[in-house]
Amino acid sequence: MATAATDRTAAPEPAPHVLVVPYPAQGHTIPLLDLAALLASRGGVHLTVVATPATAPLLAPLLAAHGDAVGELVLPFPSHPAFPAGVESTKGLSPALFGALIVAYTGLRGPLGDWARERSGGPDRVAAILSDFFCGWTQPLAAELGVSRIAFSPSAVYGTAVLHSLFRRMPQREDGDDESPIGFPDLPGAPAYPWRQLTLLYRTYRDGDEVSEGVRRNFLWNLEASSFVSNTFRRLEERYLAAPLADLGFRRVRAIGPLAPDAADAASGRGGETAVSAADLCAWLDGFADDDGSVVYISFGSMAVLQPPHAAALAAALERTGVPFVWAVGTAAPLPERFEERVAAAAATAGRRRGKGRVVRGWAPQVAALRHRAVGWFVTHCGWNSVLEASAAGVPMLAWPMTADQFVNARLLVEEAGAAVPVSWGGIQAAPDAEEVARVLEAAAGGQCAHVAARAKELAEEAAATVSDGGASRQELDELVRELRELGSEPKE
C-alpha cells in the first residue's frame, strides 16, 4: 500500500483536454477564440483548437499568448459537391451558400474522430468538446467518444432560441406572403416576426434537399448538448435567462459575455489585419477632441454587402446632414459614383467638424473606433459581435438590420434594452429613402435621443461589472472551468 508521503509526491493528474471547434466565419470564430483565451488564462485545462489552412492564421494571437495551454489542429477543409472548391469560410461567400458551408464542414467529423480516438487511452485523451452551434455534428462525435459536448453560441440567447425554434417547429407562412407573421409561442412574450425577417437558412429550406436537411439536423443535434455557453450577459437578456427554454432543449445556458476586448486591447490584431491601423484611425478621430460624441461610426459587418439602394440612401443622408462619420464599407460596397472623392474634398476644405468624413475600404479596427470619445453613435446591421462591442463601449446604436438574426437583435435593443433607435425595418428587400435616414441621423446628432444614449452608458457599466472579478459572467466562466476540470477527472472506462 502506498504511504501518505508517496501519495503527496505522486505526479499530478494532467489537465483535462478540451477540443474546441470554431465555425469558419469571423463573427463565430473570433468570440470562441476569445473564450478559449479566457479558459486558458484560468488554468487547469488544456485546449486544442481546430482550424483549416485558411482560418489557422486567426489562431496566432491566441497561441502566442497561451501557447503553453493551447495547441492547434489544422485539418484540410473537406470537399463537398454542393460547395465550391478552394473556399474555406464565409468571407466573400454568397448567402445562398451558407447552408452548404454548414453541411460541407461536417466532413471534419471523420478525421477529427480518428485524431481523438488515437489519444483515447493516453493522458491527452479528449475530455470534452466545446463547439460552435453551427457545428452540431460534433454532438454525435462526442457521443461516439463518450464525452460531453458544450454548444457555444456567438449570438444572443434570444436569437439562438429563435433560430432553433424554427428548425424544431418548422412553422410555415400563409399563401406565400412575405409579411405573414411567424410566432414563437414558447419564448417569453410570444414574439412574432414577418416571414421576410426570418433567417435565409430557414426561408430557403426545401423538404428532402440534402443541404436543407443537413442544416436542420445541425440545429436539432444542438438540443442534445449538455449545455449552452452564450456570448451575452444577464442584464441584457435577463428575460431569456430566467428559466430554461424549450427552444434550446431546456438546457442550461451560461452567459459568459460580453467577449469584447477592453480599452487596453482595442488596438490588438483580433480578427486579422485591418485596412487602416487603430493608431491612424484614432489620430484622425482626435481631431474631434473638443466635440465628444460628434462622430457617427458606420459598419454593416464583415459579411454583409449593402445593396446599391441602401448605400445610396445612406451616402445621400450623410452628405445632406453633414454629420461627421467614419464608414467602414468593406471591399465591395457599391458606393455612389464619386462619393469617396466628394468626402475627401469636403474633409480637406471643411472645418474639423461638419462635413468631415472618412471611408475605410476593408476590415476596420472597430473596437478602437467605438472606444474613442469622439464616436457618439453607431449605424449597425446589429450583428451580435457589433452589438456587444458597442454595448461594452457605451455607444448607442442606430439599428439597420438586414438578415439572419439581426432583426431579433434589433428588436431586443430597441424595444427591450432601449439602447438603439431604428433606422429601417425593411431589410435587404426595401431600402429607406435618404430623407428618412437623414432624419434619424439628425435626431441622434442633435441630442433628441439623449435617453437612448444614457441607456447605452448604463449598459456599458453593466457590461463592465459582469466581467469584473465576482461579476455574473465571470462567475459563470469559473463554473464552466470547474465543470471541464470535473469532466477531465471522471474515471476512464
TrEMBL record:
Q: Which InterPro entries match?
A: UDP_glucos_trans
Enumerate the GO terms in the molecular function aspect: hexosyltransferase activity; UDP-glycosyltransferase activity
Q: Which Pfam families match?
A: UDPGT
Q: Which CDD domains match?
A: GT1_Gtf-like
What UniProt keywords are attached to this protein's entry?
A: Transferase
Please identify the protein, giving its name as recorded. Answer: Glycosyltransferase
Protein family: Belongs to the UDP-glycosyltransferase family.
Q: Which SUPFAM superfamilies match?
A: UDP-Glycosyltransferase/glycogen phosphorylase
On the tree of life, the source organism's domain of life is Eukaryota
| Gene3D superfamilies the UniProt entry points to | Glycogen Phosphorylase B
